[in-house]
């Protein structure tokens, strides 16, 4: 692991997200989930490489037994980061629920809690409608974020903390 900057502790992260708009909480969760997916794919590739070393009969027995220590260490460090990131997602979820909202999780296909986000026949997002239980679909969240960007460009500067 790098000896550089250390991640902020979970308690500080929880404090930092308290003032963020709900759509930013979901955006951050999506960003973290994307990072987790990349780390998991990387770990799978590293493990595959280690497995090729341990099963390569052309290598000396000692080398096969040892595998690749650097790759093994990288996998271990990635698991630590993945666990920390999962904790962050849980903190984001708790913050949404603390505010009285219901947490929804979107999968890689844009589904929210198992139901597809609405789209028109040409694949564009459908007109926003309030999701069940006060939740927003991905299309609704995207629309709100676009509206906020337009507001920001028009001089409505929102104070806040970027994580």
Describe the protein:
The chain has 163 residues and is mainly alpha-helical. The chain has two domains: 7-103; 108-117 and 126-154, no CATH class. It is 57% helix and 2% strand. The chain has five helices and two strands. A two-stranded antiparallel sheet has the order 1-2. Strand 1 and strand 2 form a beta hairpin. The longest helix has 34 residues, at 22-55. The two termini are 21 Å apart.
In short:
By secondary structure, the chain is mainly alpha-helical. The chain has helices spanning 10-16, 22-55, 61-66, 69-98, 138-153, and strands at residues 111-112, 115-116. Residues 113-130 have a biased composition (Low complexity).
Alpha-carbon distance between the two ends: 21 Å
**Whole-number mean pLDDT:** 78
How many discrete structural domains?
A: 2
Sheet/helix structural class: mainly alpha
How do the strands of the widest beta sheet line up side by side? Answer: 1-2
Largest sheet: 2 strands, antiparallel
Number of strands: 2
> Globular, elongated, flat, extended or rod-shaped: what is the shape?
elongated
Number of helices: 5
What ranges have pLDDT less than 50 throughout 5 or more consecutive residues?
107-133
Give, in order, the helices and strands: HHHHEEH
Helix content: 55-70%
Strand content: under 5%
What Rg do the Cα atoms give?
Answer: 21 Å
GO molecular function, one term: protein-macromolecule adaptor activity
InterPro entries: TMA17 (IPR038966)
